[in-house]
Design goal:
6-stranded parallel β-sheet; Cob(I)yrinic acid a,c-diamide adenosyltransferase; 216 residues; alpha/beta
């Protein structure tokens, strides 16, 4: 008897070029799931053979969250998906022993890196498949700037800097911006998709810390 419950059969991933990429997405809010949503979408893109890069602005590890997160191991196993973390240890604005000046320096470094990758993607021919093993400096189809909006909320980078990234991107680069608990009003007219992730209930309010496999 044939088992028809398994769904579609997975196929080998071959480099491909997206036909309809080029939007600007914004994921913000006080709820859990902004990065998770972006990573899920990035995984879907990689499954179609598109080249994706994740650049994290703020997630640099804390005493309660391991530096090596589960998503890094998963990304390393997927062709065409790469990541880098520019975050400083600790969290800006908290009495956790981290230096706020260093947070700002790391965030500005990430901003420069984002500019570099966007420029490289503009120089690349994104209408043709990108090398799955190639560095992001050779161009990507989707760039996820994780926690960049939190960095903007905190004044580590300026709203004008974020706007500049959008205005400089090539037409066929999908740009995904996440983070922040404050509505990014400065992006209302620039973004094609804006999703607010709202918290209704969160175990952290009852004292539950970050859990391995769900938060990191």
């Amino acid at each position: 008897m044939t088992d028809n419950t398994a769904g579609p059969t997975a196929e080998p991933i071959e480099p491909s070029a997206p036909e309809e990429f080029g939007l600007v997405q914004v994921w913000w809010g006080d709820g859990k799931g902004k990065t998770t949503a972006a990573l899920g979408m990035a995984t879907r893109a990689v499954g179609h053979g598109y080249r994706v890069h994740l650049l994290q602005f703020m997630k640099g590890g804390t005493s309660t969250v391991e530096d090596v997160r589960g998503e890094y191991n998963a990304i390393a196993a997927l062709p065409g998906f790469s990541y880098e973390n520019a975050g400083h240890y600790g969290w800006h604005g908290f009495l956790d022993g981290s230096e706020d000046d260093e947070h700002e320096a790391r965030a500005k470094g990430a901003l420069d890196r984002a500019r570099e990758i966007i420029q490289a993607s503009g120089d690349a021919d994104l209408s043709t498949p990108q090398d799955a093993d190639g560095p992001p400096e050779e161009g990507v189809n989707m760039l996820v700037l994780d926690e960049v909006l939190y960095a903007a909320n905190r004044g580590l980078v300026g709203p004008k800097d974020v706007i500049g990234l959008i205005e400089s991107k090539p037409d066929d680069l999908e740009l995904v911006l996440t983070g922040g608990h404050e509505r990014p009003e400065f992006l209302t007219d620039l973004a094609d998709l804006i999703t607010e992730v709202s918290k209704e209930k969160h175990p952290i309010d009852a004292g539950q810390g970050a859990r391995k496999g769900t938060e990191f």
